[in-house]
């Protein structure tokens, strides 16, 4: 008998900017795990070489991505017909779970947000519900999905949580960076709701874990899993007995504004001005 398959739910796949997720999928497969990716849209034509080594198949939602950022009525007009068939089949297959999730989307999630922002979030939740219904049917038809996992704790985890509601399959999620800290991505207690509903939560730094723990009112396990980096490749040489060790500041990431390397360079200047001796390496 085959082991259960883990369904990874993402907003875009494969993305060149999310190599850490691609590496995670590849390493999990090397450890013997079977995965299937469900994504709202396809990544760019430029791909990291690791994609060629991933065995997991990908299923994409059928929406018209050309209106991804269009006004809601335009998005709904273009995409509702694309989702209607899947939702009807899901309703027939799991009527109680489907209707409960629809009610929860329209009314239960509203308890997590303010009245003033309700019009915006109602539109966002309807989009996520339509996407979740399509993915839920695909998951049930697959027949071997035993666990669901969302990457980033904003919209993709909302979809994952709704798929879990409709299918009865447990879920978890990985919280990464701004998806944790920007209130507009998880207004009021929506992040707490997601943590409460999840089997477990993963994140990539101890600071993130400590921050998420503030929203964990139900004892959901929160794990710190660092992005893979062999620090031995960047270690400084061993100092002699009479030579003090010079600290090494190591920054790793894409050279884009949101990674903050300009702040790191400025900080190095401040440290140097104050007489600190160190080395800094940006990879």
List the helices and strands and how they pair.
Blueprint: E1 5-13, H1 19-30, E2 34-42, E3 57-60, H2 72-93, H3 95-108, H4 118-142, E4 145-151, H5 155-167, E5 171-175, H6 178-181, H7 190-197, E6 201-203, H8 206-213, E7 222-224, E8 248-251, H9 261-273, E9 279-282
Parallel strand pairs: 1-2, 1-4, 2-3, 4-5, 5-6, 6-7, 8-9
Describe this structure in words.
There is one protein chain. With 283 residues, the protein is α/β, with parallel strands linked by helices. Helices cover 42% and strands 17% of the residues. It is built from 9 helices and 9 strands. The chain has helices at residues 19-30, 72-93, 95-108, 118-142, 155-167, 178-181, 190-197, 206-213, 261-273, and strands at 5-13, 34-42, 57-60, 145-151, 171-175, 201-203, 222-224, 248-251, 279-282. The strands form 2 sheets. It has a 7-stranded parallel sheet with strand order 3-2-1-4-5-6-7, with helices on both faces. Helix 8 (206-213) links the parallel strand 6 and strand 7. Helix 2 (72-93) runs parallel beside helix 4 and helix 3 runs antiparallel to helix 4. The radius of gyration is 22 Å and the shape is globular. It starts with a strand and ends with a strand. The mean pLDDT is 90.
